[in-house]
Amino acid sequence: MSTPAPEDRKDSMVESAAGESEATAAAKRGPSVATRERRQGSINPSGETPYLVVEDLAVQFPTADGLVSAVNGLSYSVPLGRTLAIVGESGSGKSVSSMAVMGLHDRKRTRITGSIRLGGDEIVGLPENELMKIRGDAVAMVFQDPQSSLHPLYTVGNQITEAYRVHHKVSKDVAKKRALEMLDLVGIPNPQRRFSQYPHEFSGGMRQRAMIAMGLVNDPKLVIADEPTTALDVTVQAQILDLLNNLQKEFGSAIVLITHDLGVVAEMADDVLVMYAGRCVEYGTAEDVLANPRMPYTWGLLESIPTVSAANERLRPIKGLPPSLLNLPDGCSFNPRCPYKDRVKGERCTTELPELLPVDGAGAHTARCHLHDKATIYAAEVAPRLS
Amino acid sequence: MSDNNTVRKVDSVPSGSTAKDSGAPLLQVRDLKMYFPIKEAAGLGRTKKVVQAVDGVSFELKAGASMGLVGESGCGKSTTGRMITRLLTPTAGEILFKGTNIAHLKERELRPFRRQLQIVFQDPYSSLNPRQTVSNIISTPLRVHNLVKKGKELDRVQELLERVGLNPEHHNRYPNEFSGGQRQRIGIARALAVEPEVIIADEPVSALDVSIQAQVMNLLEDLRRDLGIAFVFIAHDLGVVRHFCDQVAVMYLGKIVEQGSREQIYGAPQHPYTQALLSAAPDLGTIRGVPPKERIRLVGDVPSPIDPPSGCRFRTRCWKAEDICATQEPLLEPKAHSSAGHAAACHFAEPKVDLTAATA
């Protein structure tokens, strides 16, 4: 596995209006080629208590129209050094659940129950000042839109040093040194100059790098990346994903990656959790969930993406729309859109909420579905349409 | 009176069948350019700079065909679409619709062509007027072009709603009562109302969720098949383009760098930029046991279109760049190893076949 060394990345980074020397430098290089080594094994291979443990988490918002259950009975865990991808469509609760991990919800307007433990310490119900100590230090967040999550009136360097000094009692000079180090690490060329520039002077990819530098400045154990590459172009997206992978190797942090893009999941994630209407509907290692999915919603997602390598066949979309969180259907939330519900005897799909149970009898791969012969249906009907 | 002549000629736009019969392209774009001036106070005097958003784009679209314009943000793909629909007036170049150059027609002469060339926008939230009912939104173009008799408008609106898969009873609702996918269908119904021959679809599905995206893609495909509408499909998602378009043009910094059929572009891309784009697209293949494809990682960002690099515009990020690339601009032309209709603008173009073929 050849990954470009950070120094190679640095000097080859071409700035917006590039000069002659850079062009000739580029000529000397081959294309940088990188692939990721996927960590094998079960969801928690070491058997130790994972760094992040979420148990039976529920997030509810009382509104004028009624109680919105944005997240319901969600449980997952992420050990250090592993990446969990949370996948789902808008409104499925993927962002809401991870904002709960950051303690970012307005307490007055949110009801959070269940348990979130970071390195063994419970954070649900922690007072704000305690949360402040954790936020940005042990846990960092990288947001989707680097344009709106960097402050436009402060220099990038200023924002990174502040993030560091909030959690470390150090002089400005020490903090600056640390910030420059971070800018360099995330592949921003000429950190000295970039340090005193404002966010608008950065391109989209550079801003996302700066955001990552700010997130990682305190060496967090857990990084929550909420659609970190959705706003970026394909070639820049690839750079940022590589960067996150390399930094994880270096720092050994746990990553929760929130995304709707299954391609990104396939390239980044060790484990995958699929959410639908506020609930986890399938959870397992990336191989389990993407190569042997056992839930009709996951099948539907996989069948509805046109891929770069696929032939031109008709797409098979999931019919209908996601349900309103104010008024979830009885039984399985997915039942109004599920093409397989007729195969379940009786009215179970429309009356009884399926539990999240191990598929194929045992193991850590779980799915929420009443279907009996999921493996057979997948192998006989779904898999042929996917290849 | 030459003016009168043009007007008459314009009024009698030939019907679609003639173009189809002759096999001549319905739409031809030749050396299209769009420079946006920007004013900057610099030193003593004011210097005028231009953003070269589109710099010499040419392609053809046959009746009923679909042409994909792919590229990253700022490559000029949307600007090209807007010029074709004349929402922007090109700085230079020709847009031939059935042989008539519409690039610089005046508004009044342009009107009959507006009917033929419609656009569907990316954002279904900002492209529908929130204060108008769906019925009003869809019937406005009908009224403007005098296409239905008074009193028959509602029938036509309901027919269109049904065509795009919406409940015709919902005609007097407002856009905010619909979801993103449904709004996009309303935008499509509005474009269909005037029975266009070409629809410019500018990122029509990129704002939608995956499961909804597939629904809208299938709708567009039905329209193309059933109504014979030709599409210029603008997108950054290579998977979507592969699915929908028979012809593909890859754009970089205002220029087409490679052009060809779907099979040529995806099966044997020749331009380094196309190769990099394809290899950067995250793919599900590997997880299903397909051997990992080669990854080409570009460095840096797209240069500014205000002051693009000399010679080949891609050279600053290209691993093949040599001295000639800085001095001599490569032309978009067929290469020695090209099959018919495949052209690339690169001094060192060579096909690479293993980027997407792995799962084929």
Automatic annotation (TrEMBL), chain B:
| Name of the protein described by the UniProt record | Dipeptide ABC transporter ATP-binding protein
* Keyword annotations: ATP-binding, Nucleotide-binding, Transport
The record's listing under Gene3D superfamilies reads: P-loop containing nucleotide triphosphate hydrolases
Keyword match ATP-binding: yes
Q: Which organism is it from?
A: Kribbella capetownensis
Q: Which InterPro entries match?
A: AAA+_ATPase, ABC_transp_ATP-bind, ABC_transporter-like_ATP-bd, ABC_transporter-like_CS, Oligopep_ABC_C, P-loop_NTPase
| Gene Ontology MF term list | ATP binding; ATP hydrolysis activity
What GO terms in the biological process aspect are recorded for it? peptide transport; transmembrane transport
Q: Which family does it belong to?
A: Belongs to the ABC transporter superfamily.
- Basic and acidic residues: compositionally biased ranges: 1-11
Q: What domain of life?
A: Bacteria
| Residue span, ABC transporter domain | 27-278
Q: Which SUPFAM superfamilies match?
A: P-loop containing nucleoside triphosphate hydrolases
PANTHER family in the record: D,D-DIPEPTIDE TRANSPORT ATP-BINDING PROTEIN DDPF-RELATED, TRANSPORT ATP-BINDING PROTEIN
Which residue ranges run through the membrane?
none
Region labeled Disordered — which residues?
1-22
